Amino acid sequence: MTATPDDLRKRATRLRRGVGQLGVLEAIIDGAYGPWLGAMDADGRGTAELRMHLAGQYRITAVVTSAGKLNLVQLADPNIEKVLSNKPALRRGWSDDEPMPKQPDWIEYVVSWVENASSHVDRRAVIAWRLDGADRRLAAMDDTIESLRASLHEREQLRAVLAAEITELRGELDALPANEPPAEDPVTLITVPTDSAPTTPEPVVELPPDPQPANPLPDNASTDAVNQTAFLETTQVIL
Question: Per the record, where are the segments of Pro residues compositional bias (predicted)?
Answer without folding.
Answer: 206-216
